[in-house]
Design brief:
Length: about 400
């Protein structure tokens, strides 16, 4: 079997899963509004996702490393996604929605991380670019954001469960053709996991990139509201997502050409500078079209930042603990940062408006960029390559 054939199921998994992700990210708030929830209540439900991720990511990462399979854990999580989503969408009261939402997100949040972890390892095994595999996730996200938006506009938001289950079932089907990773070592013990948490470079790096990831997650939550504040429609929100994710896909697809030229931390710093510029300009915007026009920066910020951070984390972690390390990274990037970004961002946009929120995000990301630059020139930033040489 050729490399291309063996990677096809993995690419299709990323495509299908990220297509489901778009539906939740873009349309769940509208669905909850249709169910009769107000803005505050919707905020509580959306905060459950990142909160569940903090527990779910390390748990499923540990299970993956313990039983030395990424494929089986992904299958269990997708089956959980299909069953719990059907129940989740039947709930009517706020408490029931939140409780079922926590169980639903417990299965959903690790799938992207495990898919990327598998893609990183398969890319290393086959000597291909991780970005070229990962860009299929972005293509799935972009395709779904256009097509599903159009469908739901015509048939009604109450039917969003149908396309969600369609892409979820597709994701499950392709997992049966996935090539799993082989790790030739003893199953890990809990004491091995503590080695990750005790790694100073790992913890300090996660702490510093949180200054950037908090702003990224706040933008995920509130760009739609900000476009609305500037006089834009729901259609313009969809366009903004589409433009951003298309450029993200281009960055991932072209990673093989530019990525290995410098140390990953150099790219994290470049992304940090661009994040800061992007948020300050957004903060000064007075038209929704200015936001959409600058959404191409999403690829140059998130695309570069995520690819470089993920690569650097992979260098810091021994192969035996790759899934656990990747999912701790995800729990921080999407979990903890998501909770802080949602809560603080929500308070700021409610009290002072989107302009103030984005200006504040520009200041926070500037601080993070300076901290990562200092980290890079200190010995900690060099240790990743020492670990890499030892493996």
């Amino acid at each position: 079997m050729s490399n291309q054939q063996s990677l096809t199921p993995l690419k299709m998994l990323l495509f299908a899963f990220h297509a489901t992700n778009t539906i939740i990210l873009s349309y769940l708030p509208l669905y909850l509004k249709y169910k009769g929830l107000d803005g505050n209540e919707i905020g509580y439900v959306l905060a459950v996702g990142p909160l569940a991720a903090i527990f779910a990511q390390p748990f499923w990462g540990y299970m993956s490393d313990k039983y030395k399979t990424v494929k089986r854990v992904i299958q269990v999580c997708i089956i959980g996604l299909l069953i719990t989503s059907i129940i989740f969408f039947q709930m009517e009261t706020l408490i029931a929605i939140i409780l079922m939402g926590a169980i639903f997100y417990f299965f959903v949040t690790p799938i992207g991380a495990l898919g990327d972890s598998l893609a990183q390892r398969r890319a290393d095994e086959l000597g291909v670019s991780f970005g070229k595999i990962r860009w299929w996730g972005s293509v799935g996200f972009a395709t779904s954001s256009l097509i599903i938006g159009e469908i739901l506009t015509r048939v009604g938001i109450q039917y969003m469960i149908i396309p969600y289950l369609f892409f979820g079932a597709l994701a499950l089907l392709v997992t049966f053709r996935l090539t799993d990773v082989k790790v030739e070592s003893d199953p890990i013990q809990l004491k091995d996991v503590s080695a990750i948490v005790k790694s100073k470079p790992f913890v300090i790096f996660l702490l510093f990139i949180m200054f950037l990831s908090i702003t990224h997650r706040a933008n995920d939550s509130f760009i739609g509201l900000y476009i609305e504040q500037l006089g834009g429609s729901e259609g313009l929100v969809g366009s903004a997502w589409f433009v951003g994710v298309v450029t993200e896909a281009v960055v991932f697809a072209s990673a093989g050409f530019w990525f290995r030229k410098y140390h990953p931390l150099v790219f994290v710093i470049i992304a940090g500078v661009l994040y800061s510029i992007r948020w300050f300009i957004y903060g000064a915007a007075d038209s929704p079209y200015q936001i959409i026009g600058l959404q191409f920066l999403h690829g140059l910020t998130f695309g570069v930042f995520y690819l470089a951070s993920f690569n650097y984390i992979s260098r810091l972690i021994p192969k035996l603990l790759q899934s656990t390390g990747h999912l701790v990274f995800f729990a921080t990037f999407f979990g903890l940062s998501g909770i802080i970004g949602s809560l603080v961002g929500g308070a700021l946009i409610d009290s002072y408006g989107g302009g103030t929120l984005y200006t504040g995000m520009g200041i926070v990301s500037s601080i993070g960029t300076v901290l990562i630059f200092i980290y890079h020139i200190l010995p900690y930033g060099k240790e990743a390559y020492v670990h890499d040489q030892e493996r």
